[in-house]
Amino acid sequence: MAINRKPIVAVAAAAVVSVSLAACGGGSTSGDGGGSSKEASKGGTLYYLTRTSAEHMDPQRMYVGRDLSNMNRLVYRGLTTFPITDDPDAKFSVVPDLATDTGTASDGGKTWEFTIRDDAKWEDGKPVTCEDFKYGISRTFATDVITGGPNYILSYLDVPVAPSGLPEYNGPYKGDHQEDYDKAVTCDGAKLTLHFRNAWPDFNYAAASLRSFDPYREDKDQGEKSNYQIFSNGPYKLEGKWDATQGGTFVRNDQYTESSDESDSRQANPDKIVYTQGLENEVIYDRIIADSGDDAYAITDRRVPPAYYTQVTGEVADRSSLVDSPYVSYLLPNFNQMKNLKVRQALYMATDVVASTTALGGDKAGTPAKSIVAPNIIGYAENPNFTAPPEGDPEAAKALLEDSGEKLPYPIKFTYAGGTPTLDKQAAALAEGWKKAGFKVTLDPLTDTYYTIIQKPSNDADVVWGGWGADWPSIATVIPPLFDSRINLTENSNGQDYGNYKSDTVNKMIDEAAQIADVDEQAAKYTEIDDQLGKDVAYIPLELTKFYFVRGSKVTNYINNPMTSGFPDLGAIGVEN
Amino acid sequence: MTVPVTELESHVTAPPGEEPDDSGVQKVAGRSPTQLALARFRKDKLSMAAFCVVALYVATALVAPILVKTGVLDPLTLHQDLLDVNMGGIPKGSFGGISADHWLGVEPGTGRDVLSRLVYGITWSLFIALSATFVAMGIGTVLGIISGFSGGFTDSVIGRAIDLTLSFPSTMMLLALSGVAVAFMTGTLQVPAGDVANALYVILVLGFFGWPGIARIVRGQVLSIREREFVDAARLLGASRGRLYFKEILPNLWAPLLVYFTLMMPAFISAEAALSYLQVGVKPPTPTLGNILTDSINYSVADFVFFFTPAFLIMIIVVSFNLLGDGLRDALDPKTHR
């Protein structure tokens, strides 16, 4: 579900990572774009401060970008991973992790083969085997127990589907139709083979981004009770238990050997990493800016609140970083309500993205987006239909609205995820723009119930807000999940298609794209679909979210870039001793 | 607190309408207790100042919607050209962007006029606090009279109801039920959705949980009043319960009720602000003192004027009401000395 839980990934050329990032320059006044000047050293304790508690620590159930990349660096190794890079504009690439290479595709991208390393171990000293992978992947099929993760991958594996739409195989706990699964995922010694229904040319990127294809030890699996259990095969392990609200402490895993990990993605600098969850953003930044005691060794994944920007000057600015996040926010016209294309076009023309972004905090909070796809995604192109100036064109909008044949002022209800003054101000700023063009706007802020309400097909809002980041760096993880009406629209829910958009043309194009085995050709096809979405005004892009973070002064080798969804890279960061 | 005998008698003996209110202050002889109280109140400079502030507050609240309609005040228009987009959208210039056009500066992020928003916020604040106070006092007075007058079983039942209400975790209830209750009001009861329904919810809940205090005070008063001769006389003449409650007893309660009213108002003004902070009540973009305050607390460093103004305004209003209440009590009950 939208903005709090989509990872994106990106990566860099293979040469990356030989620790010395001294060349990356000190902080500038406006943040240094994700690299810190101090060299990493081993040892010490790193403090990780955050607000939202992780809902799941089970690899197959995680879906928040932050957790997917953090846990990959610390405890959950996958088939492949993304390397560390200090270049914020680095192109995505994957490197082998628990597999010996980045996988071999055959049969037009429908079959993937990996060979599992023989020297990697779990925290109890037992080796990580192909069977562990096979078991881990099977867990996603237990949709009654393994909830919260990217369940759609069920439909990617070549397992027969029951009339209900779900696979007949129902996971390792019940084990019905186990033979179906055994055909789709096979182990031959250390050789793991996966069979997919359609071409999945960039599967190795998905395996690096998501934790769904990570191994899991069958003898450690307690189903629902394993939600917060962390059984590591990475450089750290959990000390004691994970507290669902507070967090936990990671210490070194003595069974992990550097020689078993050639991914160069885990420098594992601190001896200890202490998580503290449940802190308000203001509290986090009061502490990090004050930089006293343990807070000098602290990092966070929360953005600086706009009211604190004035405090990020001088010495504090040297500790800041400002990078593009993988998240784009956008508006969705509700196609059940706003059926007139001209009205939707008028709404787009009247949308003042500059005012909206200013309300969110200005140019450190985001930049106007030109597509629902983030620029660092493979297949990104500016959508040719969104050519209005970012501050909107109320005159042109008014002309379109008058031309639409509807009665003016045209009443619209804007339902948005409110609950903070900043979001309320953003909505007010958008409303002012729309009013100028002849819309009569009712604002409807919702808090906890937001997604529940807008996912109801009967929802009477005319416009809703949404945010999305790709699951892995492919445009294929943006457009079908958001706009394929067949996977989204049911009787009781519109899935992620909050605008109830339904287009046979787009659905057909999505099917065509799924058959293409070449990554670039497939991306080009999706760009065409994006164009069609723009023509229909299926969405109105708002801003590409920026990540503006400050860290403690004793944090070294600070890196955050698309490789870790824009979040601090725990594989690289260390602390001064 | 006991109501002085002189006061009670004057009310019993002087039927409504014949009160010598128009007799003028200059006459030395024959001043009614009301006039005496007023004279005492006028001598108290602090109370008079508080009264003036309260009067100004009420006047502002009444005029604000007209000023907004006529465009003198504009709480919604954006002025983002006055903001510094590099610094999180705080106003350009010192003191929160104070200028000839914006006497109290502009709001960070949007550039909306702070003065207009505060003035318009006062209207909602007064409307909610006043309505909630009436609800609480209405319930509290009626139940207090019945409880004190009837005694016995009825008294026990009402007494337990008071205990129950006081021990109820009202804040939790307010938060937990807000969504459901507002949906019920707009759906089943056909209350117009939006500000009205949200305000109504706060009024009803604050009112419902505010009555026990007043019921206890009224009951205590009634216990002594019901023993007085004029009540016995009315009863002997065959007066109905309703007449006894509202014609014989109620007029003797106005002094404590008035004092309690002035103490309850500020409590509800603060409560509205606190509830806004917890996302219950009138929602943005409609400004209320509460939701302006909610936003301002983050700006203690970045924009001190914006941080300080709403909190200061709420403080002035609450303190004025409290001083007014104290002054009234002193004036109406000269036996109490501080």
From TrEMBL, chain A:
SUPFAM superfamilies in alphabetical order: Periplasmic binding protein-like II (SSF53850)
Keywords, sorted A to Z: Signal
Keyword Membrane on entry: no
GO biological process: peptide transport
Gene3D superfamilies the UniProt entry points to: Dipeptide-binding Protein, Domain 3, Periplasmic binding protein-like II
Key word Signal present: yes
Superkingdom of origin organism: Bacteria
MF-aspect GO terms: peptide transmembrane transporter activity
The Solute-binding protein family domain, residue ranges: 94-485
GO cellular component: ATP-binding cassette (ABC) transporter complex; periplasmic space
Membrane-traversing stretches: none
Pfam families to which the protein is assigned, alphabetical: SBP_bac_5
Signal sequence annotation: 1-22
Protein's name in the database: ABC transporter substrate-binding protein
Organism, scientific name: Nocardioides guangzhouensis
From TrEMBL, chain B:
The keyword Signal is assigned to this record: no
One BP term from GO: transmembrane transport
Membrane topology, from the record: Multi-pass membrane protein
Alphabetized InterPro entries for the sequence: BP-dependent_transpt_permease, MetI-like, MetI-like_sf, OppC_N
Domain called ABC transmembrane type-1: residue spans: 122-325
Subcellular location(s) per record: Cell membrane
Top-level taxon: Bacteria
Keywords attached to this entry: Cell membrane, Membrane, Transmembrane, Transmembrane helix, Transport
Entry's Gene Ontology cellular component terms: plasma membrane
Family: Belongs to the binding-protein-dependent transport system permease family.
PANTHER family in the record: D,D-DIPEPTIDE TRANSPORT SYSTEM PERMEASE PROTEIN DDPC-RELATED, OLIGOPEPTIDE TRANSPORT SYSTEM PERMEASE PROTEIN APPC
Protein name: ABC transporter permease
Source species: Nocardioides guangzhouensis
